[in-house]
Automatic annotation (TrEMBL):
GO terms for molecular function: ATP binding; ATP hydrolysis activity; metal ion binding; P-type sodium:potassium-exchanging transporter activity. Belongs to the cation transport ATPase (P-type) (TC 3.A.3) family. Type IIA subfamily. Keywords: ATP-binding, Cell membrane, Membrane, Metal-binding, Nucleotide-binding, Translocase, Transmembrane, Transmembrane helix. This is Probable cation-transporting ATPase F. The lineage of its organism: Bacteria, Bacillati, Actinomycetota, Actinomycetes, Mycobacteriales. Pfam families: Cation_ATPase, Cation_ATPase_C, Cation_ATPase_N, E1-E2_ATPase, Hydrolase_3. It catalyses: ATP + H2O = ADP + phosphate + H(+). GO terms for biological process: intracellular potassium ion homeostasis; intracellular sodium ion homeostasis; potassium ion import across plasma membrane; proton transmembrane transport; sodium ion export across plasma membrane. Gene3D superfamilies: Calcium-transporting ATPase, cytoplasmic domain N, Calcium-transporting ATPase, cytoplasmic transduction domain A, Calcium-transporting ATPase, transmembrane domain, HAD superfamily/HAD-like. The chain crosses the membrane at residues 255-273, 285-310, 703-728, 734-752, 772-795, 811-831, 843-864, 876-899. PROSITE patterns: ATPASE_E1_E2. Its main location: membrane. It comes from Mycobacterium helveticum.
Amino acid sequence: MPAARVSSGFATTAHHGLAAHEVVLLLETDPHRGLSGGEAAERLERFGPNVLPPAAGAGLLLRVLRQFHHPLIYVLLVAGAITAALREFADSAVIFGVVLINAAVGFIQESKAEVALAGLREIVHTDAKVVRDGRERTVPSDDLVPGDLVLLEAGDKVPADVRLLREVELRVDESALTGESAPVSKSENVLPDSTPVADRCNMAYSGTLVTAGHAAGVVVATGSETEVGEIHRLVGAAETLATPLTEKLARFSKILTVGILGLAAATFAVGLLRRQDAVETFTAAIALAVGAIPEGLPAAVTITLAIGVARMARRRAVVRRLPAVETLGSTTVICTDKTGTLTENQMTVQLIWTVDAMVEVTGSGYSPVGELCTADGAPVFVDADAALRWSLLAAACCNDAALTHEGGRWDVVGDPTEGALLVVAVKAGLDPPQLVASLPRVAALPFSSERRYMATQHRQDDGYVLLAKGAVERILELCDSQMGADGALRPLDRDAVLAAADRLALRGLRVLATAVRAVDERVEFDDEEAPGSLAFTGLHAMLDPPRAAVTPAVAACHTAGIAVKMITGDHAGTAAAIATQVGLLSGRDEPGSLLTGADLAALDAGELPEAVAGATVFARVSPEQKLRLVQALQSKGDVVAMTGDGVNDAPALRQASIGVAMGRSGTEVAKDAADIVLTDDDFATIEAAVEEGRGVFDNLTKFIAWTLPTNIGEGLVILAAIAFGSALPILPTQILWINMTTAVALGLMLAFEPKEAGIMTRPPRKPGEPLLTHGLLARVLLVSTLLVASAWWLFEWERANGAALPEARTAALNLFVVVETFYLFSCRSLTHSAWRIGVLSNRWIVVGVTAQVIGQLAITYLPAMNAAFATAPISAVTWLRIFVVGAAVSGVVAVDKLVRRARSGGRRSTLDTGTFGH
Ligand code: ATP
């Protein structure tokens, strides 16, 4: 690949070969203040949005041709050609017509499903952090322009091609671009022009993922000018609609096709041996092949899945990988984060504990209106209590969040925990912007879920001060003294602090400790730990209320036989209290229902699965341990949905049967690893997605249960006719008519079937369970047999009573369709009677049946159709017979259901037993 790249209209340049200041000059930007808002808008106009053009995908012609690439279609084309050669032009026209209609329907359905899926990907927007006019702001990544100064940090997806200006320990996962899965380290050094893309360590490329560190850089290419845009243009990212299930079904129908073709050939041979008419035997063999192959199956499955994806999106779960729709329905365990998923992630500090005082804080939310007072309401003055003052200073200064006030609403930019600490500092009378000036920060050790604390160093009048805040045990590890109200340092009473923290945690409050130490010199945080010998100053206890929808959603999961486990980095006491509030723990739980990260670390691989299965709450767990948890559960055969938001959650999200990322608070790395993304971060949405997943599976089962008897029935009718050497009760073209019209007008409507009531009161489907359970298979065979027997009988009866062949065949054809229509209603519900779920509850069925009726009247009475399909008008009495037979078949099916239900002890039938309601 040539080193030089055209950068959206700026000079043709290899940006990695230029020094940082040259790149800045070339792109007419400022390395610190970025572009001006006006310039950015002007460039957006000039270069267009930072998006990739829609994938070229397969060309139109190819997509149309693909519709003909199916064994059945080959059979039909050959049949059409032979019938034409035999000068049976009407038959040949019908066969070719059907092939064309089939291709058109397939094409439309496939395009629709593709468009639906492509649209969904856009719901999950990516934001980019840029500096414009000297101010940091967040903009949709679509709005980036060449010359923009972007900021990158761990968890971000690189939004455009960027020449790095400054970086700290930046590591980027470039597998999307280079295929190399190990993250690469970056630096801002100038490189030779000839350096290949994979080695350009001073560039960060669009679509790659930042796994560690942070950086600032200038956008050098956007949209299709980026490296990934180039690849995109070359390859065309065609969206695949395949899932394990569709692939399995496609394989199944291929094997079936070969088997049926073999049977058809054998039939033809037998007919010839018996010296039957060659043309007629051939026609019969074709009819057998055409009738018995369930050609609509793969398309119906894809469409049902696509409809499921759309339904999930409406309930705020965006599916990134189609197989997740199938898997969701069989989820047995949901592992969820606490903060933000079960709770609002709207923190408010309510209490501050110091070794000498307990201070209450009034007010709620992020509005900094409230005050600090004692338990009896007396105001507390911060300047009178040194420990309280230093604790609040740590809260305000060892903090990367910012408070915003827009449109009368207070909000936080950054971590909600830090937002709450800023708010309490303001309530206490501190002024964070002024503190930035009076206590300038000189070094920082950022918060991470592994380290569980954050530390900063600030310059003050007489030297420096170290401030730290974080999980209580971690901060205490760094402390050897505690500060009193008078500012004097005393030896640390660790037990007293831990006891106070436990008391606060048991009330469901999230507790953070603060600490301080004056130092003479600057410290380097390069050993990834803050220096010890800090003085403990206080505890901040904050409320993060559970989300309203969570308690009912947890209860719904329990009724549905799905275990819910909380996995959190928070304190065991806080975790247990929130778990009790949302109904995960009952207060009478077995020992072992709460495990901490330390408990997990002490268990060996053999003990882990049992212990994990028995526990509900996992506290102080590090992201690495999440992976072990998922593996332990999976080793017991569980289908695990796991939530995550951080960079380090990615391995667990990938390992989980369904990785669930948070759309709002999640990093791009987590979203990239996930199968579904929750646009509202709410646990209740996972429950909703599982419900939809079950609905999708039900509808697939319904379609298969409905379609197979037709195919088997049609195949058997022809076989029987040849075996007995009698006239064919239905002709190949008529079979084609039945298959094509009913699959579209009747069968497909099952994909729109609403979820059944009680879908969340039955246990999860067993993983790996076949779609056709024994009960279902028996039902399919019963209906097939009834279909053959009744069609045969009606045909013979009509013939015996003087009907001509076309008339008798028209009667048999209509019988097939009527029985299928009756049976369609029977298949609409797996657990209830069709009448109980309301005949009109799926209006598509009504539309479909109406269309089918019109079609049947047309093929029976329109002279042109009579000529094309060799049908003939039939009398009202014949119709009556058809309906009586159709109703009788439906009655037998109903009785079969009753018997099955009685045998299963009146229990509400489930998919497991394969028994169906009627
Ligand atoms: P969950 O895993 O349910 O989202 P969490 O948000 O509590 O839980 P982490 O963000 O990993 O998990 O936090 C773990 C602990 O680290 C918290 O309990 C808190 O004590 C501490 N902590 C959280 N945020 C910060 C922060 N910004 N600075 C310092 N310490 C923090």
